[in-house]
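anyone seen this seq b4? input:
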Amino acid sequence: MADLLHSVYVADKGLIFKVSGYSQNLHLVVDLVTREMRAASGRVDRHMFEAVREVRARSYHNVLLKPHKLSQDVRMNVLIEPYISVRDKVSLIQNITLEELQDFTDRFLDKLYLQILMQGNIAWTDAIKISENVLKNIKWEGLPEAESPVIKVHQLPLGDRKLRVMSLNPASTNSIVTNYYQGEVATVNDTATLEVLMMLMEEPVFDVLRTKEQLGYSVFNLVRYTFGVNGFTITVNTQRDKFTVSHVDRRVESFLKKFSKDMNRLSDKGLAAVKQSLIQLKHTTDYELKEEANRNWREITSCEYKFQRLLIEAEAIDKVKMSDIRKWVADHFAVGNKSRFRKLSIQVVGHLPNSADNATQGESGVQDHSLQLLHAGQPSTNIQENQEEFITSIDDFKKSLPLVNTPRVELAQC
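predicted toks r here
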């Protein structure tokens, strides 16, 4: 068997074509696919186009039915500029024609900026030949720097903001609360501090919110590196008929209040143990070539080019002090000095079981994917909420937000 694998998929800033397998035949796959890129859309008949379009539309729809995917989509919709929501894609895709696809293919391939990684058992001379063949097959002009895609992040306002929406799946009682706490532009030292903090939080957040309070079957915290901006999230998957999202949000804040006190009591010995565990993870040996290749590819597509990132981060983690942990908590938690407390709570509300809105969806296939944004006290809750904290229009809210100035790394600086 040739044992060759290939994939083509859409990424944040363009199209990615990946090939793996025995090196002696890889160039044949690359040559074949790149030669067909120009011609393929012209050979697609209308029946095939409509079938593929329907499959893609269904996949968009299925993504939005999952509350955790909807939560992610809404969060990125607020934070990222530009951002094309899955909700926008599913509403537009049925209007796309075969002629528009063919026209877009030509325009897309006319101007490109190509980034290539070849890693493994391949000579540098062969790598250059493969790259030259790709250029020969596709025949594109260089993309001007002014047209290069740039993704920016909105800086949240100081304080607490909530975005509460109804789930787009009327048959699901699942509710999701994801509290996002935004930090600043990522630096090596700040990232190391945040990673240590998240490892310190990992066990107690599950123990308190999942095991003891039983708020939901899935509870976790994660470091969030959003296009150069640090942050973290705490996510709780609960049930609409068991807990309200407002109750879950308050319990998360209650946990963070207790956790901040625990950080003030944490000993140097306890910190050292966590740091050592994290450093060992950074030094874990890659079992397959693709692990290292994927890591290097992320550095290329992000244009950061820190190919020794794990070693750099391990050194920075070793230097993290208790004062760094306590300062990060004090600055970014609601219980501290709040000088850098920027919180966005994304709350997806599930539907009540056996209710009118829990009816089976119609067989027509026509779905309404627009968001139903809720206000304070909606759906009914006995907790007093501040309406000023609620986002009632994503577009209007984003207009008031500045963009974080993240440094752009030029290849010549690496």
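The chain is about 45% helix and 15% strand. The CA atoms of residues 153 and 227 lie 7 Å apart. kinda curious what u guys think
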